[in-house]
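Most newcomers find our protein records easier to grasp once they have seen one. Read left to right, the backbone structure tokens trace the chain's path through space. Nothing more is needed to start thinking about how sequence determines fold. An example says more than a description, so a record of this kind follows:
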Amino acid sequence: MVNDALSHAPLRAEVAAWLDEHLTGKFACLRFRGGPGDEEAWPALRKEWERELAAGGWTALGWPQACGGRGFSVAQQVVFAEEYARAGGPGRMGHIGEGLLGPTLIACGSEDQRRRFLPGILAGTQFWCQGYSEPGAGSDLANVRTRAVREADGSWRISGQKVWTSLALDSDWIFVLARTDMEAQGNRGLSFFLMPLEQPGVEIRPIRQMNGGSEFNEVFFDGARAAAADVVGEPSDGWRVAMTLLGFERGISTLGQQMQFARELAWVIEAARRNGAAHEPVIRQRLAQAWSGLRIMRHNALRMLSGADAGAQGAPRREALVYKYYWSNWHRELGQLAMDVLGAQANIVEADDEKRTRLQQVFLFSRADTIYAGTNEIQLNLMAERGLGMPKEPRGTL
């Protein structure tokens, strides 16, 4: 049971002690850095930190031991995620490879693919990004238009565009959902490819955001190559593989995410106490609601994970469908609360005022939370159709 995480005191102490010892020296500057909205912070050093974690045996904790992981239970993984976030462990450069692609290859990949790709992910020497969203296929992933055409030698030529690709400039490989059957409609006729980014026909363009950063990118494919051995599953089976991967997206990392949210809420409370906003009844009520909402989020996440106790093979239950909708709206409201607490000072940008700057970043980045990875409208449809079995929403033009 996930609730048993509270009883893993020796593991909790071991993780905390290791982080206290190793998140020092050249790595000390990484504490509490590199999360969403701050992923451009020291990417080279954070890659080195991935190798430090690997050397200590703290990567791929939930993977089966046969695949190089430690075979941790969900409860044990929760302990690590919480202690990592509590210690200020930096945003993981290897998250997409370790948390998403690795489990997907274990579940859906070939033995050859597992042999070639899992060791590099495990060692923190190979970094991945995700090629799903497109300009016309964001929340509606089944509408992807990137094309893949098979060559005479069995390889594939990929043409199209992906957008909002996190960390593409700092990645070695990308997994791409592309259409291989041009006659098929919707989620049929899609295939799941593994592609090196360092090759002719791939161009990466950073997207400058309103907070000044550019952690997201556009990736253009103009006849780029994917080897025949780098199709996961069968051709036209890409939707099943893609949905398997998305199931892992709402797994153990949610608890670490909540620790970051708790830290941000603490910053807001500190600012309210510092400038006197905490004495205003409405602000006090909203702070209390934010605190309560975070507690609800934690308990729902533990319930969501309680049925997924089979290591990397365990995907969350249907309760996971509510999670993204809940946290994204909570976080967006926290960003607005931060600005209301700061008052007129929220409109002033001063690089040397770190406390104000980080609250402004929370506000700016959280505006996108209810859009990326599925808009609110899409999330509500998923809950209704997949979770409750209600009739599908009519789709089509009027």
User: Anything to note?
Assistant: The beta strands are 128-131, 147-150, 156-162, 173-179, 190-196, 202-207, 216-226, 231-232.
